[in-house]
Amino acid sequence: xxxxxxxxxxxxxGAEASIGHALExxxxxxxxxxxxxxxxxxxxxxxxxxxxxxxxxxxxxRAGREATIRIxxxxxxxxxxAAREVREGVPxxxxxxxxxxxxxxxxxxxxxxxxxxxxxxxxxTTERVLALADVPVLSVRLTDxxxxxxxxxxYDSVVIPTDGSDAAxxxxxxxxxxxEKYDADVHxxxxxxxxxxxxxxxxxxxxxxxxxxxxNATEAVAEMARDRDLDATTEVRRGVPAxxxxxxxxxxDVDLIAMGTRGRAVGSGRLxxxxxxxxxxxxxxxxxxxx
Length: 291
Fold this sequence. Notes:
There is one protein chain. The chain is of the alpha/beta class. About 45% of the residues lie in helices and about 25% in strands. The strands form two sheets. Strands 3-2-1-4-5-12-9-6-7-8 form a ten-stranded mixed beta sheet, with helices on both faces. Helix 3 packs parallel to helix 4 and helix 7 (about 240-250) runs parallel beside helix 8. The longest helix is centred in the first third of the chain and has 28 residues, at about 50-75. It holds the Pfam family Usp. This is UspA domain-containing protein. InterPro entries: Rossmann-like_a/b/a_fold, Universal_stress_UspA, UspA. Belongs to the universal stress protein A family.
């Protein structure tokens, strides 16, 4: 399924953390690896003389060459085909354009950007790519000390949050593709959103319907997993979705979360769903998001 994998990099530790996951999936699927560095020239073109332009952007271009060479060298050391490129432009737009041009099947990127301010929130480039990409995006987060979380190189356990929507089903299909390759255990989770429903005051019939909907949604994912001969469990919870999902992840040994972006149309773009954004920002394990 994933035959072409794109690894955008800015040379930061956050970007480097994603390389191991990209290489692992690249080997599993015998995928071609693409390394891309974007020299951020801003949204508006700047009229500069040639010498001024060289002085302004040359350091970033050198850093880009070094960062992309590191990735392609590692890919080739794993007997994978690799390509690299340094481009100028607005980072998220350039990443999406490149992914479209190269018919990329998956984007793998770190969630932390270059600056310290991005340590407190999901970097704007990553968030925009997650919201707007037409292909699955695997985001890999750093710990507070800027070191990647420990990982044994396998995806043995996958959590698939679901609400029964089409986006959740697409995420489940992509997650199960990976789970089948690794013979992973599958955990299907549904959270009855208490920020929408006041369950204490709701009639029992409403509460029963919500729980039944969650049971049906999780069992549908579990059946998809069992059809692939994978072990699957289901869980229905109540609470704030992102909080409950992260608590569940912390209670089991999980290697991957896969969920829909649930973006909605806004002008010429889409917004990343609040639950997905919160999970990606705080998840200790990689999150695969699917539009």
